[in-house]
Amino acid sequence: MKNQKHLFNLPEDLHYLNGAYMSPNLKSVEQAGIKGILRKSDPTSIKEHDFFEPAEEVKMLFGKLINSSASQIALIPSASYGLMNAIQNVPIKKGQHAITVSKEFPSDHLALRKFCEENKAELKIIDPPEFIVGRTKKWTEDILEHINEDTAVVVMSAIHWMEGLKFDLKAIGEKCRQTDTYFIVDGSQSVGALHLDVQEFKIDALICAAYKWLLGPYSTGLAYYSEKYNDGEPIEYSWMTRKDSNDFKKLTSYPREYGKGAMRYNVGEFSNFIALPMLKSALEQILDWGVENIQAYCFNLLEPLRDFLEEKGLEKDEDVWVSSHLYGMHLPPKLQTPQLTEDFKAHKIHLSTREDYIRISPHVYNDNHDIDELIKVLDKHI
Q1: 170-181 pLDDT tens trace
Q2: Which residues of 3-15 are buried (b: 16+ CB within 10 A; e: fewer)?
Q3: Does one domain contain both 227 and 373?
Q4: Is residue 225 within 8 Å of residue 262, measured between CB atoms?
Q5: Which of 185, 204, 200 is nearest to 100 (CA)?
Q6: pLDDT tens track for 64-77
Q7: CB–CB of 169/202 below 8 Å?
Q8: Which domain of life is it from (predicted)?
Q9: What does R_g of the chain's alpha carbons equal in angstroms?
């Protein structure tokens, strides 16, 4: 795959290695948003079917990305919204517990902690091993060891949001299925840049914010809910989620029945006439590239960095266990100095620092020059 920077509006002198923070707009996404803004200037251009059909198109595209039917997908305003829909519908018996991993993203941890407090259930947090090489494999094994018939739910990200470590979701999903455990995955830092198949990994709910690797606008997201959730209770009661809500002549019949599949979990006013066209354009481009190609591009791009870290004696887990679109480089606190941060800024290198990790998150708009400049700065401090 060739460099795709020409499809974005990034400044030429900017080394943007921070896709895990927020993606830049594709030019096509930007234009879709502008067109959506202008559309409301003449409200007659927005027809009744526009409240529903564009949403179905977006669901269908997302379904292709994760191997799901459109009917099991909901439009959400944030990952935390989607997570609450999923977690609050998990059945739990007295004496059961929930599982997550150490230093999970706050929204995931906080929602699960609340669930455990309300149900007087233990929250088991699985810590990583202290060593680096073989770390992810052993961490996954420890997660699997703790899942049993008394585990009501496992909530975790597909990759660790600080380190970029790739958990064995297939093995975890299979263990959850064997023990009748709900498996809820936060895909915000993976879907769109890394292969994720909800059928293959036996995921019960997959939640994704759209403004990172889905290249969509902020305050949008998508969620997959398996058939287990088709009779669940949503966190809000919108008229738009009911059966036949697209027939405006029947609105005051006040139907109790929801639409099919995961329709009940859609956020109210999901037919955002600005955001939905932007998200649709972004998903079309991702599908055209292919997530395997995006991941391969990033892997090849980071080869000089991996060689540099090896030369400096900084350990990293085996490549098969580490994502390439979100690459967490561990630095001891003594090396994470204000001078290093200022040097990044001076060279217009944008990335994230999360605790003891420098999070390097490239995409297809990055090139070798971006990585070379990063290595030059690092070399002055390590």
Answers
A1: 999 999 999 999
A2: ebbebbeeeeeeb
A3: no
A4: yes
A5: 185
A6: 999 999 999 999 99
A7: no
A8: Bacteria
A9: 22
Give the distance, in angstroms, between the CA of residue 103 and the centroid of all CA atoms in the same chain. 16
- CATH number (domain holding residue 180): 3.40.640.10
**238 and 331, same structural domain?**
no
222 neighbors 74 (Cβ within 8 angstroms): yes
Are the C-beta atoms of residues 53 and 240 closer than 8 Å to each other? Answer: no
Higher-confidence residue of 352 and 336: namely 352
pLDDT one-digit tens code per residue, 34-86: 999 999 999 999 999 999 999 999 999 999 999 999 999 999 999 999 999 99
> For residue 37, is it within any domain?
no
Pairing of strands 151-157, 182-186: parallel
Quote the pTM value. Answer: 0.96
Q: Which of 299, 108, 298, 112 is nearest to 186 (CA)?
A: 108
Question: Quick check: is 72 in a domain?
Answer: yes
Domain total in the chain: 2
Per residue, what are the HEC states of the chain?
Answer: CCCCHHHECCCCCCEECECCCCCCCEHHHHHHHHHHHHHCCCHHHCCHHHHCHHHHHHHHHHHHHHCCCHHHEEEECCHHHHHHHHHCCCCCCCCCEEEEECCCCHHHHHHHHHHHHHCCCEEEEECCCCCCCCHHHHHHHHHHHHCCCCEEEEEEECECCCCCEECCHHHHHHHHHHCCCEEEEECCCCECCECCCCCCCCCCEEEEECCCCCCCCCCCEEEEECHHHCCCCCCCCCHHHECCCCCHHHHHHCCCCECCCCHHHCCCCCCCCCHHHHHHHHHHHHHHHCHHHHHHHHHHHCHHHHHHHHHHCCCCCCHHHECCCCEEEECCHHHCCHHHHHHHHHCCEECEEECCEEEEECCCCCCHHHHHHHHHHHHHHC
